[in-house]
Each structure stands twice: as structure tokens, then as C-alpha cells.
Write a structure and sequence with these properties.
five-stranded parallel beta sheet; Helicase, Ruva Protein, domain 3; Zinc Finger, Delta Prime, domain 3
Length: about 375
């Protein structure tokens, strides 16, 4: 029997739910499809937000041969087989590489010349920052698109597409449980229908208790658990965060992987509300590097409780994103002369550094951006 997720999977951009910043009218992927523009890109975002679906829609819309591999199990021979396979009607081959961050450097190096030569158009999907996980040579040949968690309205649109009668309060519970992950919501609906028939909060909870979820460090549950872990700290719920930490530790998750996510969390979600949070998270990372299991779990728990209880602010994170947007939009705007480096007499004669004051209230942004405010302390 065809899985529910497959039955309701969108096949056109018009049916796709979410990611309007990418698929809306005039947005990058919509424009690329309209103009039949074939290019390599990486989809970076949390689980269950449409990365695989979007890749399939793109390939189908361009009439290209679509090949799908998981970096968890794929090897060089799999890639070679795709390259050597006879081309289809249109001659273009798209390789969708799920969990591209699981490819090691040697595997990515092997893939690179095929992408460079155009023999393969690569679409990578990852839940990890590609800046850290994808080699620079390959990354430079791919556009990176960031996908967001689905919001409540988007989740309910997808839930209603299942065709099952689900009461409003039960939908609310399901949306909160799934946390923006449509795949998780659909799986719970499907399992509950098979086990109990009626869709209710009680039956959903019973399904969760009767469904054995195996933690696989290379599989979906790995990402579901780290997602729940981060969201619990974000919600300032140390008990929930400690529980998901314990599940990862018990499953033998790499403590450095957990600690690295905590370091990112300290800056992204806590920021200037508690600057010590970054120091704590960094100290945890260094401790687990030195100590290892089983005692490293104690260090992780120490850091988790601190980060969970700390006040939260994304002000500096949002400010950085806004500044990055302008940096990409405007390119290398001229830096004001008075704050330019002037290591030589010629540069000084040209006015570099002239009138510079260490402590000034003067707006030091480039002329085009003067008055722009990125950081808003809340």
C-alpha cells in the first residue's frame, strides 16, 4: 500500500505548501522553473519542510532525469552509475543527494568534477549548515536556499489534505507536537488511522506509546531528537531538554555533535540576554572533547540546564541576517574614507583615515545605508 505521505505529496509548485520566499511569484525557484533554468543548489532546513518534494517538482518541471540518493548509504559507484546511464529525452540529469552533509570530503571531491562539467546538476538537502559540512569547491558551485519550519496555517493545510476528519482541537495538538515537521505529523496520522481509526488526541498519544521509534544516528530519528532538544531549550523547558539529551546520550550520539548545537544555540537564541551562555556552551564543548563518555553526559546536562533557564533573545541573530541581506543585495559598497585603513603615505594623501575619531556618534555605515538599523534590542 502506498504510504500516506506519498499519496498527498505535491507534484506542482502550485500545490506546494510553505517556503513562499522561494516558491512565490517572482521568487528564486519559481523564476528558475518558469525560465527552465537548470542549476545546482542546496536546500538547507529542518526535517519535514519539503526539501525532497521541492527537488522532485523542480526536476519534473524542467523535464530532467531525476535520480535520488541518500548520502547515508550511497557511494562512488552509485554516482558513477548515474553519470554513465544513458541520458533521457532532454539529456539533463539531476542528482538529488539527501543528507549531503553525510558525504565525507573524499566523496564530495569525487562528485565535484561531474557538477563542474555539467554532467550532473546537484540538488543537495541538509539539516546542517552547509558552510561547515560541504567542501568549499562544491559549495561555491551551488546556490544555497534556506527553508523554514512550517507555520500553523501551513501545517493545517497539509493535515487537511490527508482527507481524514480531525477535530480542530486535535489539529491544534498535532501541530504543536510536530513543531513544523509535516512528515512527522503525517506519519502519526497514518499510524493512528491504522491502529485506532478515529483521530483524537488520546489516540494520537496511544499511537506514540505503541510505536517503537528507534534512534538511528544516520537516520530520521536522529534529526527529530536533536530538533526536539533544541526546541525544548528554546521554550525554556529544562526537563524536556534533559530528556531528549538523555535519549541521545543513551543512543551513543557523538557528544561533540550535541555540544556544537549548544554553542550555536547560545548565540542564536540567547545572545546578549545572557552573554555568559556562550562561554558556558563553549566550555561544555571543550570538556566533552577532553573527557568523553560516560562523564561527558554530566557536562552536557550542566550546559543544557543553564541554556534552558537563560533568558532568550534572537536580536543579534536577526540583526546579522538583516545585515547579511544588505551585504548580498548591495555588494561592496564604498567604505567611508575616514574609517579606511591607511598603512601608506599614498593612502593618507588620498584621504584614507582622514578625520577618523575613535569615539564618535557619526554613522559609520556606507553612504547608501546610512541610518539603517539592524540591531534592535528587545
Amino acid at each position: 500500500m502506498e504510504p500516506l505521505a506519498s499519496k498527498i505529496r505535491p507534484t506542482t509548485l502550485a500545490e506546494f505548501v510553505g517556503q513562499s520566499h522561494l516558491v512565490g511569484k517572482g521568487k528564486p525557484i519559481e523564476v528558475a522553473i518558469a525560465k527552465k533554468h537548470l542549476f545546482s543548489f542546496i536546500l538547507w532546513g529542518p526535517p519535514g519542510v519539503g526539501k525532497t518534494t521541492l527537488a522532485k517538482i523542480y526536476a519534473k518541471s524542467l523535464g530532467a532525469d531525476y535520480h535520488e540518493l541518500s548520502a547515508v548509504s550511497a557511494n562512488k559507484d552509485d554516482i558513477r552509475a548515474i553519470v554513465d546511464a544513458p541520458p533521457g529525452l532532454f539529456g539533463s540529469k539531476i542528482l538529488f543527494l539527501d543528507e549531503i552533509h553525510r558525504f565525507n570530503k573524499a566523496q564530495q571531491d569525487f562528485l565535484l568534477p561531474y557538477v563542474e562539467s555539467g554532467k550532473l546538476t546537484l540538488i543537495g538537502a541538509t539539516t546542517e549548515n552547509p558552510s561547515f559540512e560541504v567542501i568549499s569547491a562544491l559549495l561555491s558551485r551551488c546556490q544555497v536556499f534556506v527553508l523554514s519550519e512550517l507555520d500553523e496555517k501551513e501545517m493545517k493545510t497539509i493535515i487537511n489534505r490527508t482527507g481524514f476528519k480531525i477535530p480542530a482541537d486535535t489539529q491544534d495538538w498535532l501541530v504543536a507536537f510536530a513543531g513544523g515537521d509535516a512528515r512527522q505529523a503525517i506519519a502519526l496520522i497514518e499510524n493512528t488511522k491504522k491502529l485506532y481509526g478515529e483521530m483524537s488526541i488520546e489516540n494520537f498519544k496511544k499511537t506514540l506509546q505503541s510505536t517503537h521509534l528507534r534512534y538511528d544516528k544516520k537516520g530520521e530519528e536522529h534529526y527529530n531528537t536533536i530538533s526536539a532538544f533544541i526546541k525544548s531549550m528554546r521554550a525554556s523547558q529544562p526537563d524536556a531538554a534533559l530528556y531528549y539529551l538523555a535519549r541521545m546520550v543513551e543512543a551513543g550520539e557523538d557528544p561533540k555533535f550535541i555540544a556544537r548545537r549548544m554553542v550555536i544555540f547560545a548565540s542564536e537564541d540567547i545572545g546578549l540576554k545572557d552573554p555568559k551562555a556562550l562561554l558556558i556552551a563553549d566550555a561544555v564543548f571543550r570538556a566533552v572533547e577532553t573527557i568523553g563518555y560516560p562523564e561527558a553526559g554530566i557536562n552536557l546536562a550542566h550546559g543544557v540546564t543553564y541554556l534552558s533557564k537563560a533568558p532568550k533573545s534572537k536580536a543579534s541573530y536577526y540583526a546579522y541576517l538583516a545585515a547579511m541581506e544588505d551585504a548580498k543585495k548591495y555588494g561592496n559598497l564604498p567604505i567611508p574614507m575616514n574609517i579606511r585603513n591607511a598603512p601608506t603615505k599614498l593612502m593618507k594623501d588620498l584621504g584614507y583615515g582622514k578625520g577618523y575619531k575613535k569615539y564618535t556618534e557619526e554613522d559609520l555605515l556606507p553612504e547608501k545605508l546610512k541610518g539603517k538599523k539592524y540591531f534592535e534590542e528587545k
